Amino acid sequence: MHYPNLYQSLQAELGAAVTAPDHFAFCHAQQNGPLAVVTPLSEEETVATVRWAAANHIALVPVGGATLLNANPSVNDKRWLLLSSRHLCTVTEYSPNDMVVTAAAGVTIAQLNQRLAEFGQWLPFDPPAPDRATLGGIVAANTTGAFRTAYGAPRDRLLGLRALTPDGQVIKAGGKVVKNVAGYDLCKLFTGSWGELGFILEATFKVQPRPACDHRLRCPFSDPNYARFSPDDLKTALDVLLDFQTRQLDLAFAILVVDRTVRLLIALHGNQPKVEWDRNQLQSMIPSLVELDHQDADFSLAQDSRIPPPTGFAIEVLSLPSRVPELSLRLNDLHPALLTINLAAGRITAQWSHQDTRNEVWNLCKSLHPPGASCTFYGVPELSRSSLPAAALGMGDAVVHALNLRIKRALDPNNIFSPSRWVDNGFETAQE
Amino acid sequence: MRDQFIATLRKMVGEESVLTEPAELRTYDCDAYTLDKARPAAVVLPDSTEEVAQIVRLCNQYKVYFVARGAGTGLSGGAMAMADGIIIETARMNRILEVDWVNRRVVAQAGCVNLAVSRAVAEDGLHFAPDPSSQGVSTIGGNVSENSGGPHTLKYGVTTNHVTGIKLVLPSGEVADLGGKCEVCNGYDLVGLITGSEGTLGVITEVTLKLTPLPVSVRTMLAIFDSVDSATQTVSDIIAAGIIPAAIEMMDATITLAVEQAFHMGFPLDAGALLLIEVDGAEAGLDEDADAVAAICQRNGAREIRRAADSKERDLLWKARKKGVGAAGRLAPSVVTQDGVIPRSKLPEVFREITAIASRNQVRIGNVFHAGDGNLHPCVMFDERDAEEVKRVLQANKEILELCIKVGGSITGEHGVGIEKVNFMPLLFSPVDLALMERIRSVFNPDDLCNPGKLLPTSKSCIETKWRPKAAAI
Ligand SMILES: Cc1cc2nc3c(=O)[nH]c(=O)nc-3n(C[C@H](O)[C@H](O)[C@H](O)COP(=O)(O)OP(=O)(O)OC[C@H]3O[C@@H](n4cnc5c(N)ncnc54)[C@H](O)[C@@H]3O)c2cc1C
Fold first, then answer.
1. Do B240 and A172 touch (CB under 8 A)?
2. Would the CB atoms of B410 and A245 count as touching at under 8 Å?
3. ipTM
4. What pLDDT is recorded for position A371?
5. Which fold has domain B96-213?
6. pLDDT bucket at B461, cuts 50 / 70 / 90
7. Which helix (H) or strand (E) holds B205?
8. B329-354: per-residue pLDDT in tens?
9. Ligand 1 pocket: which of B146, B154, B250 to mutate (most atoms <8 Å of CB)?
10. Which of A222, A400, B213, B425 is the most exposed place for a label (fewest CB within 10 A)?
11. C-alpha to C-alpha distance for B128 and B138, rounded to whole angstroms
């Protein structure tokens, strides 16, 4: 839908660029899509937008590179705008000697890592589509990828942030030093809050020296000449991952990629002697390991596994390492087009190229609880988290759910930010 | 009413679990921060989550303030009670409930001692990585509440990076099971919010912790420098070189003297500063890392580098470091330990300024701290009975914390705000930031019965006027 008059009057009012949400195909598929996209050029314009939206009871859904807009969609009956961080993209402060960087929310992880590379450093997050995924989005979704076990999640590296609250005030959480316990850790509250508590303006992270050596390996677990792998191939591969876990191997990651064949991708990080030693050790366990180029298509396949095919959908299941084999096999029974399994991180992704299996996947996810597993759907427009049972969301019991809602209400009393996206079910204390 | 409250308490948990005799209560006047003191009406020692919940509900009924206490080693007055309030001590809740080896998790009661957790899983090649110097006595509940650090948090992260689940008795008496064994929880990260909340959002009764594989190999070295300047420059250079040792700890001449008097380690008393540096990991490649570190020390003029030949020598070096703050107590009757954090590249300049602050205020300051994290611990030594000296100590503390803020740092890296630093919070946070924190507190603790007067200056309580005789002097 297009509202030329609305765009004009909004633009005049806010100063910020206001456009039709044409680029956001996913939103078009939603029954109640956004009115427009507001893309402020400055913090002042962002503040003006938030104040205007609050005054006019219009909801705001923050968006960065839109790589995760299709996960936990904001399904609500309010009028709403997408508030884009795309033009807030300066690296404000970088002190390589302190290994600390501060950057605006709209900086992409690829841009930032290019800058950090000049000093042999990086921020070790590997979300899908790194050239579009912004720091604000990465924090809001607490999302990374294969490197999660080795280098931690955004929650572990975020030192501080500045954010806009629903009343248009700028708040600061944390700071710019690597250790800090002054006050409540509001960084934790914003991290993984899916844009429900405010608009993140800027974030400060603890960065990491790049490993002197980054070695990549692959091992096939099925015969590439067959039309499709056999379930036993997958079982064997899962046994190997479980063996890695119990032996406490120090790997940067080990991921199974499963489509027509089953193969294991491994990254080894460290100095030269360590990586060589690791490699020899692995080689003695799995002789069929081969060296791999960093550019190998399998890595981007694994990294982007949450981006669903155009007409399909994807899910991510987060659980415990010990549950991964069983869950992987159950998901595999539903014939996904692509399955990736990171046992150490307790993480499985699966995607299907059509929507037919959705109900079966849905039923499987419902049965995940207990003990402790959660799932996120990508690319199902009409699916709001509020329509999933609390148990499948891993939301905890009634007391915990009520606490979550009370926090949302205390920080966003008029439900301006990302309504119904995460903990809030339209402010109803809906229980299963 | 008070008698009725105490009598009900006794009925709830048993006679022997409620302390009310003045002689028994004296220990609870303060924690390891001794400048503020207040005597609780009673100390109660529950045995289970259910008992804690009952106690908290009773406190609500009688409108009695309560505060949780672990081992009382806190250094910011967090576990100090309100006068007439009660202390809920977790000493009896010290059991390890479950070790999940495959998933590397342990579930422990809040009163379990830090080191007891690591000892229980050492055979499986695992440990609980956060290692505050007080780890032989401090509790998991205290560690989580303070988000404690330790020497090895440089590489392994602080407590919050190792907690996945918390059972919390809310200030209303309800029990909330936050998070679990999974690393990623759904809903807001309440486990992350509770960690470091200094006992102001409820009473923690159980914690699920991540376990970390023990390093296969370790290299520990002690580098001796003529001046503090060259030692601090070395720390900056190691970090800038992209090496992340497991720990870089520093002791200055004053602390070295105290340690030497206590343990006779053969440390040179004319040295300006000592750096204790450890690298760990797989055996392969470790010598290369250790050599790279040693080369940086040498480039900065290290007079001598002693490498620990075996685990016995390593333990001895660590003993010297871990008992450093305690040893400072040999040099003066009272010690307050500051906990500011600064960007690591600013260490040389900040140290010069701390020396100037000490001499300007005529106080004696020894430094033993987590240099790799930029987390300072200036130990200010004095005699608590000398009111004039106490004033100068507080002034020096204030100047040091202001200095930390000025160079872009924070007022506390691991000891917490407690009662000690509440008045510094407005220097670090705006009224809007503080109001937001206050709102969060009200979500959990609307009547402010749970540990009032701590962490936030705006919290409603009479503690500032009534119970802050000394630190209030700032
Ligand atoms: C010699 C010495 C060395 C130290 N070294 C370090 C160090 O290296 N790193 C470091 O970070 N700290 C250090 N500390 C400070 C202190 O040991 C830590 O803060 C520790 O975590 C406190 O644990 P505790 O059990 O003694 O807690 P307490 O002092 O009893 O309590 C601390 C705070 O936690 C709250 N609390 C305790 N238990 C609970 C619970 N179950 N539920 C809710 N709230 C609770 C209390 O209300 C209080 O606010 C040191 C202290 C000393 C005396």
1. no
2. no
3. 0.95
4. 55
5. 3.30.465
6. very low
7. strand B203-210
8. 888 999 999 999 999 999 999 999 99
9. B146
10. B213
11. 13
Q: Is the pLDDT of residue A260 over 70?
A: yes
Spatial CA neighbour of A150 closest among A254, A289, A276, A257: A254
| Under 8 Å between Cβ of A268 and A292 | no
Strands A347-352, A313-318: pairing kind: antiparallel
**Chain A residue numbers touching B433 (CB-CB < 8 A):** 171-173, 183
Q: Give the integer Cα–Cα distance in Å for B176 and B189.
A: 13
Residue A258 contacts residue A329 (beta carbons within 8 Å): no
pLDDT in tens, B400-427: 999 999 999 999 999 999 999 999 999 9
Atom 21 of ligand 1 has which residue's CA nearest to it? B143
Ligand 1 site residues, Cβ closer than 6 angstroms: B 31-32, 67-75, 78-79, 90, 110, 132-134, 138-139, 141-143, 145-146, 148-150, 198-199, 203-204, 325-326, 414-415, 451
Q: How many whole angstroms from B85 Cα to the centroid of ligand 1?
A: 20
What is chain B's mean pLDDT, rounded? 93
Whole-angstrom Cα distance, residue B183 to residue A182? 24
Query: The tokens of B307 are what?
Result: 């490498």
Residues B152 and B124: beta-carbon distance below 8 Å: no
Please name which of B390, B288, B293, B377 lies closest in space to residue B338, comparing C-alpha atoms. B377
Q: Say which CATH architecture domain B2-89 belongs to.
A: 2-Layer Sandwich (3.30)
Cα–Cα distance, A70 to A30 (Å, whole number): 10
Indicate the fold that domain B216-414 takes in CATH: Vanillyl-alcohol Oxidase; Chain A, domain 3 (3.40.462)
Average pLDDT over residues A146-175: 96
Residue nearest to atom 49 of ligand 1 (CA): B78
Distance B195 CA to ligand 1 centre (A): 12
- The structure's pTM equals 0.95
pLDDT above 70 as % of chain A: 92
Mean pLDDT is lowest, of A73-82, A84-93, A188-197, for A73-82
Q: What's the confidence (pLDDT) of residue B1?
A: 64
User: What's the length of chain B?
Assistant: 474
- Residue A386's pLDDT is 56
Please spell the DSSP secondary structure of A340-404, one letter per residue: EEETTTTEEEEEESSSTTHHHHHHHHHTT-SSS-EEEEES-TT--GGGS-HHHHT---HHHHHHH
A162 vs B: CB within 8 A = no
Cross-chain Cβ contact B242/A175 below 8 Å: no
Above 90 in pLDDT, residue B360?
Answer: yes
User: What's CA A196's distance to the chain center, in Å?
Assistant: 15
